[in-house]
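Example for tutorial group B:
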């Protein structure tokens, strides 16, 4: 009996080897930004696809984190996002700029408990101390990762943003040789669409697929010219995911592409229950304010945040990058703590500095440059003043340090100030 079971297993294994499917399926996402409430839908989609493609490759182009306080304030390792990515059986991720938001130590801890590798081939990143990147290098990331897929050899390489140019990174790991030794070469890139298309052209015939991110660009049909790699990208926050199926033919690999809108899918129940419990556990479901009217526009919400800084610090002027504001409106009615925290999901310290009022335009312009040219929010009084005090976030202050300014910590967090301000201004009766 035992022998026949053994033989049956042997034959199944032998059959599996000989019946190598002539296809490789990849499900690509990017810039998930801790969209915890979409993860149950992604789980449902991935499970459904695994019915047809049991060895589905699930890949992220980075910026997995920052966007939901349930995740971004979590003191646990893994954070909820990494925990769900582990359970979803992610195969690999690129390293996004937001992976660094809570510092290198936090990132290293997250990488230790992630069951998938972070892949990046072009460190060092700009603006990071070499010793912290060395620690990162020692601990966690891979420059090249190989994965076997029913006997096909898949090579994964990675790029991140604000780091070495691709050609410099690839000079020490020749793509041609990697291509020769593998059946498919996939680049996970958080370097942005422009870089992705340049790399696709420069390494035509050597890279097959670029899973791109960082621009939050939606490419429902991907991007490809002649024999370049196929570039895919899905806006952000798990609104979409792209399935690419490569088929082996006599002429090499051919592919088909399909983009899915995740809102059309039901939620995986255990995942949905886990996410709902997070909200409850952290008190994010607690109602903190009641709005009489809908508050529309990022600028108006940014002004609210600036006013909360002014009220708490008594500074003259508040400055905030508009990119910090991540929702377009707050609908009238009850606002939970979770709703308010999502207005600006970046948990930063509020800092102040004394400046001469004539310096302000230069600082505002610098903030604008660092925020992709978007005009920042400025609230306060400067008319007729010499010395003024400026309040902003530690994030903006990092960009303004080049001016030799001595920012003072206040010990207060921006998200807490905003929630308190709403609670005071719009109490529920
Ligand atoms: Zn990014």
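The residue assignment follows.
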């Amino acid at each position: 009996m035992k022998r026949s079971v053994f033989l049956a297993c042997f034959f199944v294994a032998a059959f599996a080897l000989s019946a190598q499917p002539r296809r490789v399926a990849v499900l690509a996402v990017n810039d998930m930004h801790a969209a915890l409430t979409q993860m149950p839908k992604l789980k449902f989609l991935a499970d459904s696809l695994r019915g047809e493609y049991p060895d589905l490759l699930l890949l992220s182009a980075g910026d997995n984190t920052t966007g939901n306080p349930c995740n971004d304030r979590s003191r646990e390792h893994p954070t909820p996002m990494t925990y769900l990515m582990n359970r979803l059986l992610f195969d690999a991720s690129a390293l996004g700029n937001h992976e660094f938001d809570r510092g290198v130590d936090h990132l290293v801890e997250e990488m230790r408990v992630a069951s998938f590798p972070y892949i990046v081939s072009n460190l060092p990143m700009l603006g990071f101390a070499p010793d912290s990147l060395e620690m990162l290098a020692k601990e966690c990331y891979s420059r090249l990762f190989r994965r076997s897929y029913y006997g096909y050899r898949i090579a994964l390489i990675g790029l991140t943003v604000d780091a070495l140019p691709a050609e410099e990174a690839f000079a020490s790991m020749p793509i041609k040789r990697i291509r020769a030794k593998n059946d498919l070469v996939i680049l996970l890139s958080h370097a942005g669409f422009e870089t992705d298309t340049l790399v696709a052209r420069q390494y035509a015939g050597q890279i097959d697929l670029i899973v791109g991110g960082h621009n939050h660009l939606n490419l429902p049909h991907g991007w490809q010219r002649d024999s370049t790699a196929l570039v895919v990208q899905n806006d952000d926050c798990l609104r979409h995911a792209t399935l690419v199926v490569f088929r082996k033919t006599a002429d090499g690999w051919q592919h088909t592409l399909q983009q899915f809108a995740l809102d059309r899918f039901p939620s995986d129940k255990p995942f949905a229950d886990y996410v709902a419990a997070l909200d409850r556990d952290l008190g994010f479901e607690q109602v903190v304010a009641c709005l009489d009217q809908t508050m529309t526009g990022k600028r108006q919400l940014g002004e609210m945040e600036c006013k909360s800084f002014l009220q708490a610090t008594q500074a003259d002027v508040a400055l905030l990058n508009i990119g910090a504001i991540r929702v377009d409106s707050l609908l009238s009615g009850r606002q939970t703590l979770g709703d308010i925290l999502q207005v600006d999901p970046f948990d930063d310290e509020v800092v102040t500095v004394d400046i001469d009022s004539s310096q302000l335009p230069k600082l505002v312009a610098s903030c604008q440059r660092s925020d992709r040219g978007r005009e920042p929010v400025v609230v306060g009084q400067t008319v007729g003043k010499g010395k003024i005090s400026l309040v902003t976030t530690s994030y903006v202050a990092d960009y303004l340090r080049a001016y030799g300014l001595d920012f003072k910590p206040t010990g207060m967090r921006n998200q807490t100030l905003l929630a308190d301000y709403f609670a005071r201004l719009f109490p529920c009766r």
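Residues 63, 96-98, 190, 214 surround zinc ion (CB under 6 Å). Compare this with the pattern of hydrophobic and polar residues in the output above.
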